Amino acid sequence: MKATAANDNxxxxxxxxxxxLLRKREPVTDxxxxxxxxxxxxxxxxxxxxxxxxxxxASRLLREAGATRVLDAGSGVGKFCxxxxxxxxxxxxxxxxxxxxxxxxxxxxxxxxxxxxxxEGTLEKVDASEFDGFYFFNPFxxxxxxxxxxxxxxxxxxxxAYIRDARLVxxxxxxxxxxxxxxxxxxxxxxxxxxxxxRHTTHVRxxxxxxxxxxxxxxxxxxxxxxxxxxxxxxxxxxxAAENGACFxxxxxxxxxxxxxxx
Length: 263
Description:
The chain is 38% helix and 19% strand. By secondary structure, it is α/β, with parallel strands linked by helices.
């Protein structure tokens, strides 16, 4: 039986209650939020979707940086998108390649009354120039994860797909105007142009979240790499590879991250 409101004895809509709390930027437990998801996405939530705390924190950082048109690359069930929309009172965009998750994200946004637009497909379908803010929650990792660490096996593991998307995002960031903001959570997994500076670092569920803001046009092919808690440059990574022997230097990922993308 549904709970009822004290004054009018009408059923309480959990989605309406959660939406109202998120609009007021109040905490909501993941258990309560995830109860709005269908069974499989709900069971996978803790591993694959941003927590409510992470989404609220990232939204606040982007909002305080002045971003008003935010894209979540690899938006999954749209948990970040919905929370960020309610938090910021702005429309939020996502791109997701799995049809079932696109449907779930659109259903979730409708339940919560959030202004969310989800594009089905890969990152090539996005016109990044339309956005002044980005959210990246380790967006490429599943391409190369072990089968047991993937949401599903709908597409094969692919290092080439990992590099394709990482290079594309690097181009987005290089072409973006100064003032563009992004949040990385648990690492971007690719190269971040040195025209971006870290404005804030925090930890959510023991994972690192960084707010980056582009401070100037790109005049360098240098880039930062996030390696767990550390930030190093691509040049430093190349030097470490040279000093640590063939096993490290021959890593395809190290080679790619050390090498500037072609224009």
